Amino acid sequence: MKWIDITILLLWIFAWSLFYQIFAGGVIDESCKTGCSCCVRETCGPSQGFADACTHGCIDGHAGARCYRTCTSNCKSCNNYETRCENCYDGFYLGGNNDCKECPANCKTCISYTKCTACKEGFEDRDGSQACEYSICPQNCICNKTSCVSCKAGFYNTTILCVKQCPQNCQTCVSSEYCDKCKTGYYNGKEFDIASNRHLNNCTYKCRVSCISCSSYNSCLKCFTGKYGITCQERCSVGCTDISCAMNLGTCDCSSNFSGEKCTECVYGKYGNMCNKSCPVNCKSNFCDRLSGNCTAGCVKDTIIGDKCNICISGMYGEHCNTHCPENCRNNKCTKDTGTCSDGCKRNFDGTTCTECINGRFGEECEQYCPQTCANKICKKQSGNCFQCIGYFAGDKCNVCKSGFYGPNCDQKCSFNCFNDTCGTDKGVCKYGCKKNHSGDRCCLNNENCVECSSNAKCKKCKSGYFNSSCKQRCQVKCHGSCDFITGICGECITNYYGQFCDLTCSENCKDSQTNIRLCASSNGACILGCIDGFFGLACNETCSNLCVDSVCTRERGICVKGCTGQYHNPVCLPSSGKPQDGQDDSSTLAIIAVLSTLLVVASAALCILVLKKIIKKIRSTDRQTEESVFQVHYENSSVGKETTQTEDQTAVSGEENISYEILDRTDIATEHTYDTANPNVIESTPNIRNIEYENFQL
C-alpha cells in the first residue's frame, strides 16, 4: 500500500512539471518543432521526459526543455520554468518586474533609462552626462564611425569638417566656384545659352519658367504639368488624362470622349473644346466640326436648315419642323426645338412663346395696364391680379391696405388705440371702435369726449358740451349744444340768452314767443319776433318817439307807422298833407324807396346813352369840317368873366387839337384852366375855373 502512494505522488509531480513546461510562460514558436532549430548547436535528444529535449540549452529569446517557448518581448534569455526575464537584448535593460525596458535613444546598453553602459557608434558622453546625447560626427559631415568621409548637401571640404557652404543655388559642390549638382530650377553653363556669354559652374542661371529642371536654358529635363517639348513650350492637349503628356512628343492617354495620339480629336458624335458636347441630332451621319459643331456633311432632311441643322423654315418648329410658330411671334419666326419666338413678340406681348404680357400689362391683347400698386407693376395676364403688392398694400389688385395701415399710399399706421388695430383705408377711422377709455373716429384721446380726430394723437372736434384739444373743458352751461373747439365760444344759446358765452339775457322788449323758441338771436341779441309796441332797434332797446300815434314805429329806423301827433317836420314822421298817416308801415316805405331808386337808375342810364351818342355824332361831324376852328384856352392867371362870343362863321377846333387840349388839361403844368370845344349848336361859352361839370361833359 505504501508503494502505491509513492508511485501516485511521483506521477503527479511528473505531470505537473510537464504541464508547466508546455503551457506556462511565452508563446510557442512553431518553427522550433522541427530539427532542434531553437537548441544551441541544434543539438537535442531524450531527456526530461522528451525525446527532443535540447542538450546544451536554448538559443536567445527561447526557453523550455525543447526551447519551443519564446521569452517575453525584448528578452534575450529567460528562466526555463518561470516567465521571468534574466537577460535583455542591447538597447533594453532589465526592469524591476523582470521585464525589458527601452534604453535612451543613443545607448547601446544601459542599466536604467538615464544611465548608459555603452553608447551607439557616433555618440558619446561629455561633461558627466550618462545618456550618450553627444554626436562624435561633425555637424555638416557624413561619418564612417567617427571619421568625416563626405559632406552633407550644401557643404564642401571634408578636410576642414565641411564647414564651408556651397553657393546658394547648389545642391552639392566641390568648391565655391564649381557645383556638381544644382538645385531644381538652376543650371551650369551660359546665360540663355548664348555663346558669347560667360560660362559659370556655380548654378547661377535659372531655367525657363516652363521648366521644372534643365541641363541648359534651351534643354529642359522636366516640364511642369501640361507642358512638353525640349523647352517645354508646347501645351499638352486638354484631352490628355490629368493634362499630362510625354515630354518629347506630347503623346498621352486620352480622357473620355477624346481620341488620337495626342488626344486632340473628339470621338465620333462629339465636339467642343472638351469634346463634351454632342453633335446636333439632325447632322447627317452624326458628324460635325470639332470646334464649331457645324454639320459639315449637311442635314438629315431638306426641311431643316442652318449650319447646325437646328433651324426650321420660316413659320415652323419642332423636331421635324411640322408645327406652326405661336401666333404672337414677331415676323412669324421661332426656334426649332421649343417654338420660342426668335425675333421677339408683337406689341405688348412677352414670354418665350409670346403668350404673356409685358410687365405692366394684362388682358387678352395685353391692352390694359396693371395696377400701379403691383410689385414691379407685374400682374396676371387674364385677371390683372397682382402677384405681389408694394409697401403695405393688399388685395388681389393691391387696392386696399394691409391691416393696421391706411392712406392713399397705405403708408400711415392706424391708431394704436383702434380696436383690433384696424381702420378705414381712406381716413384711418377705426372700423371697430376704440380700446377702453379712448374716443374719436381715430381713437386719438384717452377720454370719451372726442368725436373727430385730426391725427392719431390730436382731436379736432369734441362731443357736444366740450372743447379744447384735450376735450376736457366744458362749454358754458347756457350754450345750446356745442361751442367753438378752440375758444369755447357758444354756437347757439338756450332760450332768453345770447352773447359769445351766452352770459347776456335777451331784452325784455322782445316780443314773446312760444315755448322753447328763443326770443333773441344768440349772436347779437336781436329780437327774433320783433319788438313790443313802443320800442325799436335790433335788440328793441330804443324807445319810439312820443310823437308816434299809439307809440308804434318801424323796427329799423323808429319811423312812426301810424303817423305823428302835432308837428310833422320831425324825421320820424312820414310826409303827409297835414294829416296823420295810417295804414302805412315800414314795408310800404321800403317798396316806394326801391321803385324810386330803380327809376333813378334807368333815367341815369338813358341820359348816359344820349350823351354818348351825342359825342359820337360830334366826332363824326368834326372829321368833315374844315380845318378852321375857334378855340380858346384859359390859363390860371386869365381874367374871369371876360365874355367871348362865337359865331357860326368862326373856324371850329379840329378833333386832334381838341384831344391835345384834353391832354394838356390833365398835365401838371396846365393847372387850373378850362377850354372850349367847338360846337355849332353852342353860340356862346363862358369859361370858369374848376368847372367840373363842364369838363366832365367835354370828356
Structure description:
- Among the domains are: 19-102, no CATH class; 359-402, Ribbon (Laminin); 544-592, no CATH class; 622-698, no CATH class.
- The longest helix is centred in the last third of the chain and has 39 residues, at 586-624.
- With 699 residues, it is an alpha+beta fold.
- It is elongated, with a radius of gyration of 68 Å.
- The chain is built from four helices and 50 strands.
- The strands form 25 sheets. Strands 1-2 form a two-stranded antiparallel ribbon. Strands 3-4 form a two-stranded antiparallel ribbon. Strands 5-6 form a two-stranded antiparallel sheet.
Neighbour order of strands in the largest sheet: 1-2
Helix proportion: 10-25%
Mean pLDDT: 79
Number of helices: 4
Strand content: 15-25%
Please state the oligomeric state of the protein chains shown.
single chain
General form: elongated
Unreliable spans are 16-25, 576-590, 623-699
The strand count comes to: 50
Largest beta-sheet details: 2 strands, antiparallel
Terminal Cα separation, in Å?
A: 191 Å
Decide which structural class fits the backbone: alpha+beta
Give me the Rg, rounded: 68 Å
